[in-house]
Specification:
mainly alpha; about 0% strand
Length: about 325
């Protein structure tokens, strides 16, 4: 005979928290966070960030001019990062599918899923319009990359767990924010910088939503939430990892200082973990304590790796500077 697990008011036995029960238990928090989000999210117009007057026809139907690398002053690093960011945004139909499947399309969860999708839709529209109007990248290559990337789709690494899904998006939204913001800094175009700052602001609000949800999950199911955080942090992949040529682009993006190990640790993982006081959560059972310890060991290791990256990067920059003298 199976005996049902004993339920405590603050920390239920992990087997008691199914995904369906967690979704139900967090519905009230989603409602509150959605309300807060709608109050702080300001409407903005993607078309206002696109210099339409600089646009020119392309060859084909309109018999316009072919794209040339010299058409735009956007830096080589800016081009690579903008394309990665755009292709990442382009896979929105797959992301929508994943979160709608996990969180549902009903009630407050459903309202959030649709609102979030609408906000994300603006990002791809704005970046594509900007890139094509300013002729910053080869439009044929961009279209082929989009077709190839979207044809692969995106399957969440965390589809088996509601808490892992929430933990992943909390870190991923901040990763996306930092990536857009730093791309803007290095793009060599003040308008791109402004546009990406605007998008980064949206991503930040998305991060706050999921981070607050994760905080509530840590309160109601601390052991399971701690395990989910540890699993997500130790196995994190950027959402655009399936982009054709991603490894090469990611290496350029890392060297250029848009997104690398140090940035991932200091500007993405640590701010969320610190806010949630993950390393100080007490009242954990053996399962939660084990996850917390694993997380601590992993973060120390990542810091050591990031320091090595920093040193190699400093040496590389010194060599480049010496060559220029
Ligand atoms: Fe986005
Ligand atoms: Fe976002």
């Amino acid at each position: 005979m199976t005996i049902a697990p004993v339920q405590r008011s603050t920390s239920l036995g992990s087997s008691a928290w199914t995904d369906a029960r967690l979704i139900l238990a967090l519905e009230e928090v989603v409602e509150k966070e959605l309300d807060r989000h709608l109050k702080v999210a300001k409407e903005w117009m993607p078309h206002e960030f696109v210099p339409w007057s600089r646009g020119r026809d392309f060859p084909g139907v309109l018999g316009g001019e072919a794209w040339e690398p010299g058409d735009s002053k956007v830096t080589p690093l800016g081009r690579v990062a903008l394309v990665v960011n755009l292709l990442t945004e382009d896979n929105l139909p797959s992301y929508h599918h994943e979160i709608a499947t996990m969180f549902g399309r009903e009630g407050a969860w459903g309202t959030w899923v649709h609102r979030w999708t609408a906000e994300e839709g603006r990002h791809g529209i704005a970046i594509r319009d900007y890139l094509l109007t300013t002729r910053a990248v080869d439009p044929d290559e961009l279209e082929r990359a989009r077709m190839s990337h979207m044809s692969e789709g995106f399957a969440s690494d965390n589809a088996h767990s509601m808490l892992q899904s929430v933990a992943y998006v909390a870190f991923q939204e901040l990763a996306t924010r930092i990536s857009h913001r730093n791309t803007g800094h290095y793009a060599g175009c003040p308008l791109a910088d402004q546009l990406l700052a605007k998008i980064a602001n949206d991503e930040n609000l998305h991060m706050v939503f999921y981070r607050n949800l994760l905080k509530a999950a840590l309160e109601i199911a601390p052991d399971q939430a701690m395990r989910a955080i540890a699993d997500v942090v130790t196995d994190f992949r950027m959402p655009g990892h399936g982009i054709p040529g991603f490894e090469r682009a990611a290496a350029q993006i890392a060297l250029g200082g848009v997104y690398n190990l140090r940035i991932h640790l200091d500007d993405v993982l640590q701010p969320v973990l610190r806010h949630l006081k993950v390393m100080e959560v007490d009242g954990l059972g053996p399962e939660g304590l084990r996850a917390q310890e694993e997380l601590g060991v992993f973060l120390d290791g990542l810091d050591a790796q990031a320091t090595k990256f920093d040193e190699r990067q400093a040496a590389r920059l010194a060599r480049v500077a010496a060559r220029k003298q």
